[in-house]
Specification:
Chain A is an alpha+beta fold. Chain A has 4 helices and 8 strands; from the N terminus they run ααβββββαβββα. In chain A, the strands form 2 sheets. Chain A has a 6-stranded antiparallel sheet with strand order 1-2-3-4-5-6. A two-stranded parallel ribbon of chain A has the order 7-8. The longest helix of chain A is centred in the N-terminal third of the chain and has 49 residues. Chain C has a two-stranded antiparallel sheet with strand order 1-2. The radius of gyration of chain C is 18 Å and the shape is globular. The chains are: A alpha+beta (194), B mainly alpha (193), C mainly alpha (208).
Chain lengths: 194, 193, 208
């Protein structure tokens, strides 16, 4: 009899604890989602600016819907410009050696070049793979010809479409190359569909 | 298929869960004193890893994600792990008494082994499919087993030498681990992962 | 009476900060000490996160210690610790996204960080909230200081910087060894050795 009471007490305690914790987390999650939505809004405003589409706080929503078409893959989001210049902004995440690498890519579909590459976040080794965020590495991608894909090479890059890898950071360099080509394939194939 | 084999060998050798990702260090340091215990622990870790990976994957993919409850993943995973370890302990003690002697006694310690939870977290982060997850968890478990048994072997050799007293058990184990990691690092050229 | 209580609390604090330091005395929480110490910023954020979760969960457990049934105490610890780890994870994701991404799953692994379970089981469940708080504060800060020392060594030797600021000049090539996993083990090993040496030489207390 006494142990039954104990069992019930235990179960009630656990139930109450679990409920409180879950509610607490649900509340935390709602705050988190709100913050995420804010960030997404800011990102979209930035993209509109990149595509040189004018907007104000009020017209933002409609301006965005008119000017940009969004496509999503598992880990990639494509923002296609519906305006005159055929551009695409891509935000994609891929696995680096130590961490997830998130990059921002601006593609000129018409001329088949990369206009800009930015590393948004990564957790690669500082001084080695971490150097992907350095200007000298990223600048190689400006006006890079991508008609034959991107190749990150360890010998001197001289053919269009080739860039220098980071010495001592082969795995990270390869990871970035993989991500870029995947994103570029995505851009080109989704562009064809239109 | 090739990808699965790569994942398997990568998690055993080049991305060894203990020597590259530093998971499961507390038992790694504490239990590697003798080879028998090390092997028992390694066995336990491998079994628990694979089973919990499968269960956590199923719960995450078919319950948490569809309901938008991904944020509960940490909580659910650790509770599941605790539960499975508890059940496993009872089953092994009851039906496989021989096995219980070799690894059953380590089971209670495993719940807080960061390697088990870590594996589930990594598998979610890397977005593995079901088959990839199987090979990954199996490889990681076996890799951890390999590492701890190798470490136990090395520490046996230490009986013949006298490391500095200030180093203590932990210090010398950690430095040995460093050398082991270095030699495992040498594998990293083999696989294109 | 109040004076005695205060110095007892402070002595718990110092005890867990130095004599029973999580990293070099008790050898707890090693997994993260190796993983997040590639640079000072990550280490500091991780240390603070662990300390915060430790403080909150220990205090809550201590407050509830009389109503937590004996048999389910481990599960209760897990529930409480996990909840606050997830909250801290939210906060990091929103306010420090690059650090959050760099720390990645290791934030979630705070749940299995032996320091938290260890302190809950050994201390919080038995002691009143004030003492639990002081003990957790000491453990957490001890851990944070340890990993920051490790990170400082690794970042300085490996990248020539501290907190991202170049300290050793542009020409510093960077000692790759300390940046790879092996280096983490070596640096930790030497840290344990030096910390123990200091303890024995100058404090004259028995080490474990």
């Amino acid at each position: 009899m006494k142990s039954m009471k104990e069992e019930i007490r235990m179960s009630i305690f656990l139930l109450v604890m679990t409920t409180i914790c879950t509610l607490l987390l649900a509340w935390g999650n709602s705050l988190y989602q709100k913050a995420l939505a804010e960030k997404e809004k800011e990102l979209r405003m930035e993209i509109l600016r990149t595509f040189e589409v004018p907007f104000t706080e009020d017209t933002f929503f409609s301006a965005f819907n008119d000017a940009v078409e969004i496509e999503k893959d598992k880990r990639t989001t494509y923002y296609f410009s519906l305006g005159e210049s055929k551009q695409a902004a891509v935000i994609t995440t891929g696995s680096g050696l130590w961490s997830e690498i998130e990059i921002f890519l601006l593609v000129d579909i018409e001329n088949e070049t990369i206009q800009e590459l930015q590393v948004l976040s990564h957790g690669e080794t500082p001084g080695l793979g971490g150097r992907i965020e350095e200007a000298w590495f990223l600048d190689q991608f400006v006006d890079l010809d991508i008609s034959e894909g991107v190749r990150v090479v360890s010998e001197r890059a001289d053919i269009p479409g080739e860039v220098d890898a980071i010495s001592g950071a082969t795995r990270t360099s390869d990871a970035v190359m993989l991500m870029l080509n995947k994103a570029l394939d995505g851009v080109m194939s989704k562009n064809q569909k239109e | 298929m090739k990808m699965l084999i790569l994942i398997f060998f990568a998690s055993v050798l080049t991305n060894n869960i203990a020597l590259t990702y530093f998971l499961g260090m507390c038992p790694f340091i504490a239990i590697s004193k003798n080879t028998k215990a090390a092997s028992g622990m390694g066995m336990a870790v491998t079994y628990v890893m694979v089973i919990t990976a499968i269960v956590n994957y199923t719960i995450y993919t078919f319950i948490l994600v569809p309901m938008g409850l991904e944020y509960l993943a940490f909580l659910i995973f650790i509770i599941v792990i605790a539960g499975i370890v508890q059940i496993l302990e009872m089953l092994v003690e009851r039906f496989f008494p021989v096995l219980y002697v070799s690894f059953g006694i380590f089971l209670p310690l495993i719940t807080v082994n960061c390697a088990i939870l870590g594996l589930s977290l990594f598998m979610i982060l890397r977005d593995y499919s079901f088959m990839q997850m199987i090979f990954y968890s199996l490889g990681s478990g076996l890799g951890w087993w390999l590492a701890i048994v190798a470490m136990a072997g090395l520490r046996r050799m230490l009986m013949l030498s006298e490391p500095l007293e200030s180093l203590g058990d932990a210090g010398i184990t950690v430095i040995l681990a460093g050398f082991m990691a270095l030699s495992f690092f040498g594998f990293s050229g083999i696989l294109p992962v | 009476m109040g004076k005695i209580a205060k110095s007892k609390g402070v002595s718990y604090f110092i005890e867990s900060l130095w004599y029973n330091n999580a990293t070099f005395s008790m050898v707890l929480g090693i997994c993260s000490a190796l993983a997040v110490t590639t640079n000072l910023l990550n280490a500091m954020v991780m240390g603070i996160s662990v300390t915060v979760v430790l403080l909150i969960s220990s205090t809550v457990i201590s407050l509830l210690r009389s109503i937590i049934p004996e048999r389910v105490r481990i599960i209760t610890f897990m529930l409480i610790i996990s909840t606050f780890v997830i909250m801290v994870d939210f906060i990091l994701k929103i306010y420090l996204p690059p650090v959050s991404k760099a720390l990645g799953p290791y934030v979630g692994l705070i749940i299995t960080n032996c320091i938290l379970m260890g302190r809950a089981e050994a201390f919080a469940i038995k002691q009143p909230p004030y003492y639990s708080f002081m003990d957790s504060l000491g453990s957490g800060l001890g851990y944070t200081l340890s990993i920051m020392v490790l990170a400082a060594v690794r970042e300085l030797l490996g990248a020539g910087s501290l907190f991202g600021f170049q300290v050793l000049g542009e020409s510093w090539e960077g000692w790759g060894l300390v940046m790879i996993p092996s280096g983490a083990f070596f640096v930790l090993g030497f840290y344990i050795m030096f910390a123990n040496m200091i303890q024995r030489r100058f404090i004259n207390r028995e080490t474990k």
